[in-house]
């Protein structure tokens, strides 16, 4: 078979052939007119162009894959079709079963706490103890279900037996959060309803989000636990605004207590590394001091109804997080009508308080972080009294303390009518063992200007107390 000339060699061959014919028949060449020679050259050029186009088309056809098999063998094409059908079936099944866009996460947080003045040293996990600074939102096991539906509605159910917010005010409840977030017109304007954990301050409720084991004094004693109600959730550029009406620290109000509280939180992200926020609560909430007196001011046993009284809470917090450094701070003020501890004259007195907290964390090695936190809580007025705490509390170090002598006939105003001002210094060390596991170590010094820490084993009172803690937080 003769080789087919390509476009690059065809033009020179034809030119050489023309020259050879002209040399062999010079008289004929001279006889031709210039016009006839130009016509032949143009025809020859057109022919060469046609040959080039045919050659390019042949090369492109040879390089293109077979459209019938997409570059795959028949067996590969069959396997591809099988996978496609199976994937579509799985998607249809997930949508039919309700698992589409469903996220499941959780953690476990075994904790060990030594409390010197309380004479206790124990592991903690799912313990039923009442909430205290040494038995708070740690020692937990939690599972979280989140689902986003078509249209942008978000649904959430978080279960935390014994140590969730639900267990603190709704006996036996394992629900930490049960909420739904519905877009109103657009995804930046939403209606948020259900049981929602409190959003006050720079510290979060759950252990994986906190650098220390225990919480600061403001978190423990001046902030609400949770809200049951509805709030408008707005996102506008760098601003996040939440405001609504809700029951505070109760799932359902008792008969005679009908007024919800107005709650709000506003956050502003100033930049990539810093921001600030503030919260407020104004309305009525359960009063434990009023629960123990009748209409004449005489002490009595609490009934099922209790009494709600006016509460006003204001708080501001800020953060700076960049590189290895974390700096956070918070300041709070609050009062509740008729909820003070000192009420011996038969008249309910108001409780009020102010406090501040600041935290600094530094990662001196990528996996190791040192943390320090300082808290102060001023609570001397009318014997003390904080949000949800309306009696002397020797475990938490609240109220007037022990060792004073007074009675209704001869009260000692220096002891009976003044509460303790509290402070706490906490030092911690965190080790990131792997992506899902954090080891935490903590030393905490709690103190007051009065002897408010009681020792149940010997009846002694102290102005200071020491706590040691360690925990392992494993998340998925």
UniProtKB/TrEMBL annotation:
<keyword id="KW-0732">Signal</keyword>
<dbReference type="InterPro" id="IPR021485">
    <property type="entry name" value="DUF3138"/>
</dbReference>
<dbReference type="InterPro" id="IPR023614">
    <property type="entry name" value="Porin_dom_sf"/>
</dbReference>
<feature type="coiled-coil region">
    <location>
        <begin position="27"/>
        <end position="61"/>
    </location>
</feature>
<dbReference type="Pfam" id="PF11336">
    <property type="entry name" value="DUF3138"/>
</dbReference>
<feature type="signal peptide">
    <location>
        <begin position="1"/>
        <end position="31"/>
    </location>
</feature>
<keyword id="KW-0175">Coiled coil</keyword>
<protein>
    <recommendedName>
        <fullName>DUF3138 domain-containing protein</fullName>
    </recommendedName>
</protein>
